[in-house]
Amino acid sequence: MAKSIPTILAVFLIINLMNVCTAKDKVCTKGWECKSSTYCCNQTISDFFQTYQFENLFPKRNSPIAFAAGFWDYRSFITASAKYQALGFGTTGGKKMQMLEVAAFLGHVGGKTSCGYGVATGGVEAWGLCYKKEMSPSQKYCNPDYLYPCAPGADYCGRGAIPVFWNFNYGVVGDALKYDLLNHPEWLEQNATMAFETALWRWMTPVKKKQPSAHDAFVGNWKPTKNDTMEKRVPGFGATMNVLYGDLTCGRGDNDDMNTLVSHYLHYLDLMGVGREEAGPHEFLVCAEQKPFNPTVTSPSSSAAT
Ligand SMILES: *[C@@H]1O[C@H](CO)[C@@H](O)[C@H](O)[C@H]1NC(C)=O
Ligand SMILES: *[C@@H]1O[C@H](CO)[C@@H](O)[C@H](O)[C@H]1NC(C)=O
Ligand SMILES: *[C@@H]1O[C@H](CO)[C@@H](O)[C@H](O)[C@H]1NC(C)=O
């Protein structure tokens, strides 16, 4: 009996040494979230953001009066995020930055899909993911476009987790993700994974070359130029609104659209246990004084061109 102890120790040591030696090229798998990839060995989103937290953030989404009841779920968010986690979404920086980024992204999602205005119970911030589609579009959002002509009868109204509008934008994101969204814009109201995927693509992709993506502007990958500084664009949540919505939201002083997004972000930080004080100074949080990266010229559909 006494003799077997050193053997056990030796085996233990050898196994540990083997782990150290192979750690560099280690490939991990986390079930459906993460398949055979090196980044899966690191902390991923589901390690710090789990189903119950998703439920806490979006508690009213399946209420009978929510317009998208039964549509949105945790699994579709995590599934959609898998390929972007490999590119840094929710996996950049330490655990705090990872959580801040997930809260920021979901802050946009919640703010853009909330139906809580005037509904009262729980406050506006409890009603994120209430919509999956614009309810009474006043137009078809079809602009003449050489690359992305409107499909006959198609309607390019707002759909998704960070809603996509206009034939041009459906065309661009459809190309990027290899979904024929130009001919099937309705897929974004039928498939929650696709709806999150298009939002994550937008978050991770610069609108124009040499500009930051919302992700880059948020996690600190972006170094502002002199022009950026002159035009008061600074890294942070404010800059993510600038990237995503330009002068629809930013450079207009204090406004409801901006404040709704900020309040969702801060609320989610509280619910995730990070705490809103971790969001940093107000000037980085808002974009009231920021000039837009891409000022709207005439048609919002072509503002993302080139
Ligand atoms: C894993 O985390 C470390 C430390 O944060 C980081 O340097 C490394 O790039 C990460 N690996 C992958 C594959 O993401
Ligand atoms: C939704 O889209 C995802 C991503 O393309 C796909 O894997 C899945 O099968 C789709 N789900 C349905 C029900 O069509
Ligand atoms: C800086 O801003 C000015 C005025 O908006 C513009 O004309 C110029 O091209 C910008 N420079 C760079 C390097 O972006």
UniProtKB/TrEMBL annotation:
UniProt cross-references to Gene3D superfamilies, sorted A to Z: 1.10.530.10, Endochitinase, domain 2
Superkingdom: Eukaryota
Keyword terms: Disulfide bond, Signal
Occurrences of domain Glycoside hydrolase family 19 catalytic (ranges): 53-277
Any Pfam family matching the protein: Glyco_hydro_19
Coiled coil: none
The protein, known as: Glycoside hydrolase family 19 catalytic domain-containing protein
Source species: Kingdonia uniflora
